[in-house]
Amino acid sequence: MSPSTEDVVSIRRGSSPLVLSLPHVGTEIPAELRPAYAPRALTVEDTDWHLERLYGFADALDATVLVPRYSRYVIDLNRPPDDTPMYPGASNTELCPTRFFNGESLYLPGRAPDATEAARRRDAYWRPYHDTLWAALAEAKARHGYALLWDGHSIRSEIPWLFDGKLPDLNLGTASGASCAPTLREQLAACLQTSAYSHAVDGRFKGGYITRHYGRPDDSVHAVQMEMCQLLYMQEVPPFAYDETRAATVLPLLRDMLHLMLDWRPQ
After folding, report:
1. How far is 63 from 86, CA to CA, in rounded Å?
2. Rounded to whole angstroms, how far apart are CA atoms 107 and 36?
């Protein structure tokens, strides 16, 4: 039996135009799938750890917040349903990932999901999240005339398999300007420039499927992705503990950026 939508994604509904998507915070692997994974995979080390906690202030902004239950090791909610690579010519993670972020196999030999299993997972786990996200954006747009999508991510600051050297602290992605209005992109970029953190706009991370697919400024949906280094708010090594001191330093900037989005108006 397929899980219900409520089992796959939780949603806290707000009445502002802002929708916060956190597609990689899930940590569960269904019991029936666990025997196929390498033992190390069961610790789900490549999770976007603690982002629901970090963005806890979003409730006070009356934002709608989507939180998935299951790990990206089951299915990657930020990849296209046809598994088209997001970054041609670079190392990419798949719709149903088969590798850790260092390129090693997630699965025991011969146990990686085949096309039939990938399609089943897409229907059981991917589609409910996206149906919920689409509905949340449609509701915000119906109420306000436009919708704002912030797709929140975090990652270790150094992962040679995915990118060279150390990643900038904060990485704003707007699909090279296609996923939101130019004025919103400019204001968010200017906010980053006033901070002490290293940053990039549409650099190595330009936004994944969620930003690129839902960000349609001509249809009054404006989407951005924030990929931030985990060292800004947590330990990047096991046990991946949340760091209150570091988090307290970056939180004002995140709040400012989300307030900026809410203060912004389409022209």
Report:
1. 28
2. 6
pTM of the shown model: 0.96
Domains in the chain, ordered, with CATH?
A: 5-263 (3.40.630.40)
pLDDT tens string, the chain, 267 residues long: the values are 678 999 999 999 999 999 999 999 999 999 999 999 999 999 999 999 999 999 999 999 999 999 999 999 999 999 999 978 776 665 567 899 999 999 999 999 999 999 999 999 999 999 999 999 999 999 999 999 999 999 999 999 999 988 889 999 999 999 999 999 999 999 999 999 999 999 999 998 999 999 999 999 999 999 999 999 999 999 999 999 999 999 999 999 999 999 999 999 998
Cα–Cα nearest to 173, from 147, 208, 148, 149:
208
